[in-house]
Amino acid sequence: NDFPILNKTINGHPLVYLDNAATSQKPKTVIDSISNYYSQYNSNVHRGVHTLSQQATDLFEKSRETVSDFIGSKSSSNIIWTRNATESLNLVARTWGEENVSAGDNIVLTEMEHHSNLLPWQKLAHDKKAELKFIPTLKDGTLDLDKAKSLITSSTKLVSIVHTSNSLGTINPVKFIGELAHQHNAKMLIDGAQSVPHEPIDVIDLDCDFLAFSGHKMLGPTGIGVLYVKKEILETMEPFFRGGEMVLQVSLDKASWNELPMKFEAGTPNIADVIGFSAAIEYLNAIGMDNVQKHEKALTNYALKKFKQLDAVTVFGPDDSEKHAGIISFYCENLHPHDIGTFLDSYGIAIRTGHHCTMPLMKILGVPATARASFYLYNTTEEIDILVDTLSEALEYFTNAKR
Ligand code: C6P
What we know:
7-stranded mixed sheet; 4-stranded antiparallel sheet; 13 helices; 39% helix; binds ligand C6P
């Protein structure tokens, strides 16, 4: 009941929203906080001495502290606002990457990276004549960690890895891989787009150098993302964008930079969505991330068992919910995932079908695309029953249609 959209009917059926890996729904507190900002505090931040500007600045900076605490960061000045995880990843490639990667170096990724954690490194490697190396995916959807040990060497400058795969649901051992990276003096970046919304994250415990994630996948609005960077690294990085707000002194021929994190936030920021994102985190904190994780583990176990009843369906990713987050990616023999997605939609069930921006992984799995159901804190086992029963009907319908 906290989520207005979940009371909707779609095609005459109650909405069963199972596309949370693409984006989550928003509780009323988040929607209201944005409206409240525009009706009560709307003004620019860090610029005015007037009351409204100071109130907006206070809310904006308090939100940075809320996010910082949520991921266990030592200071809110390690938190840079971006538009989304994609921008956060590009920021690292275009600043730290440009300055620290040279010919002969390598960057280690996995075969299951989202395009957002592949394409920026492809460009950097091409420009710098560096090499990309990929930790392979084993048959069970986990990473080949023996291979990881031999791929990460003294020539590795960065290991950049997806924490939870959006296409397999695999939860990767990023802390262990980070230790391997640090043993070779390489930096560790975690793509947390699919993990930060679903489990407690502590950047100090993970000891990652960079962490990227998006607000819209964790009850927050679209258009707001985060890049966490260790302070000592952030201090050495050049700005990404240049312009207003990120400067200290400007003359006609040169400029010096504002203090952290403003140095990385040129121009008027997305104030309303920062405030909305903070309301989302407060909502998650009130429930507790341990509880969110526990609930989704139970749903995943339930779904993995239920899917075993469907003979013609292959589920990708590990069998064990300790290694498999609430993302069930599947393929039905001789049936295109889009047909399944359309059939399910006619019953009000929203899933995602396609390559999920992981085309190289689809090639490795040997499928053109998958159908994907992804869970969040508001989903129920009853909804999984509806999904599996309707999927079973779909299989029957398409088998009969082909006869
Ligand atoms: N994955 C999905 O349906 P943005 O779009 O910038 O908020 O997030 C990019 C991104 C980065 N890494 C991972 C692991 C992701 O899953 C995503 C977004 C969505 O799977 C949209 S393709």
